[in-house]
Write a structure and sequence with these properties.
With 67 residues, this protein is an alpha+beta fold. Helix content is 22%, strand content 54%.
């Protein structure tokens, strides 16, 4: 029987939401063992003074199996 844990991770990118997700999952996999899945709980952007999107941010729920 396996036991899983879910942790929240916030990741960001200057390029896109997709890049922020990739960045977050890669970083989580460096610290956490047995990462099995992730889902996007929330998305947001930061907006500059001229109305341009400066940064894409995602809040991820990452599931991993405990040893």
């Amino acid at each position: 029987m396996s036991v899983a844990r879910v942790t929240e991770i916030k990741a960001s990118s200057k390029k896109s939401f997709e890049d922020a997700i990739q960045t977050g999952v890669k970083r989580a996999s460096k610290t956490l063992e047995n990462v099995k899945s992730a889902w996007v709980q929330d998305q947001e952007v930061t907006v500059g003074k001229k109305g341009e999107v400066e940064e894409y941010r995602v809040l991820l729920k990452v599931t991993f199996i405990l040893n």
